[in-house]
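Subject: Predicted fold for Helix-turn-helix transcriptional regulator, 221 residues

User T.R. writes:
Posting the sequence so we have a shared reference for the thread.
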Amino acid sequence: MEDLGKQFGGIVEERLKALKTNAFAVEKAFGLPPDAIRNVIRAKKPSGPTLSRVQEICEALDLEFYVGPRRASGPVETVVLENEDFAPIMRLDARASAGPGSENGDVQVVEKLAFRRDWLTRMGVDPAKAVLVQVQGDSMTPGLHDGDLALIDQRRNTVRSGQVYALTDIDGSTRVKRVDVLPTGLILRSDAPSYPTEFRPSDDANRVNIIGQVVWSGHTW
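User M.O. replies:
I've generated the structure tokens; pasting them so everyone works from the same file.
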């Protein structure tokens, strides 16, 4: 267990470097106890951190926390442009509505757009688990405009209040909303003040499928 604790501490330390931040800043931003991350890096406890603490740290650093059978990861296609390493990300013909909802049916890959691999790494995005979709509607302005391309990180499908997610709503439509978690359900918010806030009580909230978090968008003028 001591060796696993040291290994985890090393992973956390490298992740902090990749994010260009420090343990104190992350602990403060995510409400973790003082030294929660720093003690892991120092491997202060011979037994290592508890599983619940590991999960909290992974969520704060956007690291995957997984216990289960070994999983195969599909190959990621790589292209080289002007001697720089790029990774292609699929753009789907689906539309994510920033409004009442879009019906998408069978989704097809339209094309692949190349993103710098080092940029994706800094963003914590696995190109094999990311997609691009077009935003439809204006309820998420000024952040997202009608016609924008939104990069969806499908690994980030555990809701953190206040973040923007692509989701499949209870009626089967695909939407983009800012989501808040309450003990009694989910709140779906638009950034444009003219659109009403929506509430999904617990039973309905369990039927909302979070596709992933919006981590980047491209706007065409």
